[in-house]
Every structure is written in structure tokens, then in C-alpha cells.
Write the C-alpha cells for this entry.
Amino acid sequence: VGAGISRVVVGATDPDTRVAGSGIQRLRTAGLDVVTGVADDAVIAADPGYFHQRRTGRPRVTLKLAATLDGQVAAADGTSQWITGSEARGEVHRLRSAVDAVAVGAGTVLADDPQLNVRLDSYGGPQPRPVVVAGTRAIPDDRRVLARSPLIYSPRPIDMPRTAEIVEIAGDSRVDLAGLLKDLGARGILSLLVEGGPTLAASFAGSGLVDEYVLYLGQCFGLGVGRPMFDGLFATIGAARSVSIIDVAQIGGDVRIRAIPEESSR
Ligand SMILES: NC(=O)c1ccc[n+]([C@@H]2O[C@H](COP(=O)([O-])OP(=O)(O)OC[C@H]3O[C@@H](n4cnc5c(N)ncnc54)[C@H](OP(=O)(O)O)[C@@H]3O)[C@@H](O)[C@H]2O)c1
């Protein structure tokens, strides 16, 4: 108003209830011409986590998995390194750099000891908060993620080093993931990257809590059954979940597929 602007074009009004159009109203009252509803989709796509979290109270969830061309995310012995090449692995670090938090289950912490941080040359931006979904198995004190002040969700009281923050959210016997997302949303986390493994991936996808899938298919076959992308039984074709494939790209020698659930309200 003070700068003497006469016309303002608004793409996607802010869904935050504390704003609720009051800024637009103020501009109009001051005599400015305010046009709303211009390029809403493009504006939302530029900052999808914000709009999602403000509308639902939950962070926007991206599920990333890297599999062999025949859909195995790890071999039967639990090894899974180098399924994809360096370009795809670099992209995963860029995915991490675009979110507020990165989650894995206890199985991945035990098998892979990941750090869940962004490791890119010349990256100086914020690091995502590591989130561990704990279960019945103890997480050893020497796991590298514990040095990164993780949030650990557990269905029962657990003893962990003081660097970790424990949040107890019991489902039946496992962590209730809807409750986990609600808690993350209340902490102001706008976007969450779930990085597997197959047990956690199946829980998120099966509960309809995934907003976008990013699947990398490496240039190799497992030639057999190791660990599938999603644990559990695919009992009958009627149980298949439809998705819309929104992008397919070759990343180095690998393939990246982005998909959204058909019922998703991006
Ligand atoms: N290629 C990839 O993209 C990729 C990514 C990550 C991991 N991996 C591979 O996956 C393997 C590990 O698989 P995983 O299935 O054991 O790991 P996971 O999905 O990361 O961890 C699963 C564990 O999390 C705990 N949990 C607590 N609440 C849960 C809930 N609501 N839903 C699901 N889990 C919950 C349970 O621990 P308790 O059993 O202790 O109760 C459960 O067994 C490793 O071989 C790793 O290399 C591959």
C-alpha cells in the first residue's frame, strides 16, 4: 500500500487460517485492484509442501524407492548398495535437500546405518531432520543417524541417547503413521521423504498416506525374489492400487518414474 502499487495479481490464496484472505481484503480496502485465482496450479506446484501442510495439517509425503528392473529393493541377505548409479544417487540427495524431514524404519537403520543427510558438493542449505520409525527391535547406540538429533517415533517407551527426541505413538503394535504425520505437521514440517524399506513403504502406501512416489529402477535384474518394494501379500488383482504416472525420465543409466495415487488431491 505504501509503495503505491495499484494492481496485485494473486496465484493461489494462502490456506493458512491465520491469514484467510485478510491481506487481500486490506489491499482492496486501500483501493488496490486485486485479481485472485491466477495460475493457482503453478503457484501450488512451486511450493507443494506448504499448501499441503496448511490444508491437511500433515507434511506432504514423497515415497522414494530404488529397485532392480525386476522390482527388488534389496537382495535376500539385506544388501542393497549400488542398485542405481551415481546420477540417481545424487538426485536422491537433491530430493533430501528439498524436504524438511527424511524417514526410514528401524529395519533400514539396522541394515544400512544411513545418515539421511544431504551430501552434495558445495551444498550449504538446511539439512532435513532425520525421522526413525522404531519398533520392537533395539536400535544400537552407535547408529550414525543418532548423531543427527533424530526424531524417533516408537510404539512403546524406549531408552535412547539424549541426542534423540523420542515421541511415543502407539498403533496396534506399531507406530500409527497418521499420528506420526500429524505430529510432524504440528512441528511445522511441511514435507517428508520416506526412504523405505519395504515394511515402512508398505505401511505408508497401504494407509493411503503417500502423496507422490519417486521410483528409481536400476539397470540390473535381481533374477529372483529378494525384498520387494512393498512387503506383504498381493492377494488378488482387485487389490491393486491405481496411480497416475506423471513423469518418466532416464537418469544416467537408470529410470526414474514419478507417480501420484489416483485419489490424491495435490
Ligand atoms: N532400495 C531401497 O530403496 C531401500 C531403501 C531402504 C531400505 N532398503 C532395504 O530394505 C531392507 C530393510 O527393510 P525393512 O522392511 O526391514 O526396513 P524398514 O521398512 O525401514 O523398517 C521396518 C521396521 O520399522 C518398524 N516399524 C514401526 N512402526 C512401523 C509401521 N507403522 N510400519 C512399518 N514399520 C514400522 C518395525 O520395526 P520392528 O521390526 O523392530 O518392530 C519394522 O520392522 C534393508 O535390506 C535395506 O537395505 C532398500
